[in-house]
Design brief:
It contains three helices and eight strands; from the N terminus they run H-E-E-E-H-E-E-E-H-E-E. It is of the alpha+beta class. It has a single domain, classed as RraB-like (Alpha-Beta Plaits, 2-Layer Sandwich). The longest helix is centred in the N-terminal third of the chain and has 24 residues.
């Protein structure tokens, strides 16, 4: 899953999210997901079979942040855009989804790609857990 611009570095010059950063973030999602779910398991933390996931993005401009927010709202996600120092944060909650490694890895990769499409950086995700 590589970016369509990866063969043209000149098109990357004025972007907030550079191709190489996008590719590294995309490639790391399986490992990050496995690590988070592994820690939850180790400490006997569980989540409901279905849970909402909190997500985080950054954008350089309000316009790009709002474009991404509109796309996320089409997925029925609750989305918030706020000014955060010299950039904009886009955060919110998904609808309920199954919490399993493959499903979350796929979703996280999709979020990386969606962020890149709007020149926004996918910064990560989280969820509420319960002690068993």
């Amino acid at each position: 899953m590589k970016s369509p611009n990866s063969s043209n570095p000149k098109s990357d010059k004025n972007k907030f999210v550079h191709v190489k950063d996008f590719e590294v973030n995309l490639d790391s999602q399986d490992q990050k997901t496995s690590r988070v779910l592994g820690v939850m398991n180790k400490f006997s933390l569980t989540t409901k079979k279905e849970s909402e996931i909190e997500f985080f993005f950054y954008a350089a401009t309000k316009e790009k942040a709002k474009q991404l927010a509109a796309e996320l709202q089409k997925l029925k996600y609750d989305v918030y855009v706020e000014k955060h120092r010299d950039r904009f944060s886009i955060s919110g909650w998904t609808t309920k989804m199954n919490i399993e490694n493959e499903r979350i890895s796929y979703w996280a990769k999709h979020m990386c790609q969606l962020g890149y499409k709007f020149d926004c950086e996918f910064d990560g995700w989280g969820m509420f857990v319960d002690e068993e």
